[in-house]
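Chain A, query sequence.
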Amino acid sequence: MGFSTTKGRYASFGIVTTLPGQLIDQVWYLIDNYLKGVFPLPNLLKIQLINKNGKIQFCFKHQSLPISILIDSKERFDPFYPTKVIVIDKDGIQTILLPDEVHFHD
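Chain A, predicted structure.
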């Protein structure tokens, strides 16, 4: 089960150059307060950033369960933000990356 123990949290170069710090912090907050403990999390999370009436909406779709969680943000949507981010947990070392940085595409 992923994201059960946190030893360190990081953001890749691609993330820190395309998303403001408050949105990076919101991704960690979303994981800690809306995803952990709700159902078992895989070690790789895919999160979409959606434009909902000019604000950001985060969308998490579980890979093996028919579950989607939509969480609204007060942050303004910017069309230059990435539309997807990947969050990886490797033995408690957690990193937010762009899909292209891990050569992962769906």
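The chain has one domain: 8-99. Residues 1 and 40 are 6 Å apart (CA to CA).
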